[in-house]
Every structure is written in structure tokens, then in C-alpha cells.
Amino acid sequence: MNGFDSELFQISVPVLASFPYSTAWINDYQSGFLKEYKSYKIHLSME
Predict the structure, then answer these.
(1) CA distance 6 to 29
(2) pLDDT given for residue 46 in this prediction
(3) Cβ(2)–Cβ(8) under 8 Å?
């Protein structure tokens, strides 16, 4: 089994790459920014 060809490696790379951004997502969620963005996007789609 080669390390770079293993299925575990291929699955874990995207997960590990998203870790630095997870805290930013939590901050946006707690501040309400995501809620405002979602309502703004829905409003635009209704026009």
C-alpha cells in the first residue's frame, strides 16, 4: 500500500485543508453574518 495512493489519504486531505477555515465559519455563524447573507441571497433570487 503506497501512502499517497491510499483511500484514507485521499479522503483526509480535503478535511485537513478545511480546518483553518472552520474557526472563521464559526465566528461568522455566531455573529449572524451567515444568516444575513442567506436572507440577502434569497431576496435577490425573488426579484
Answers:
(1) 35
(2) 57
(3) no
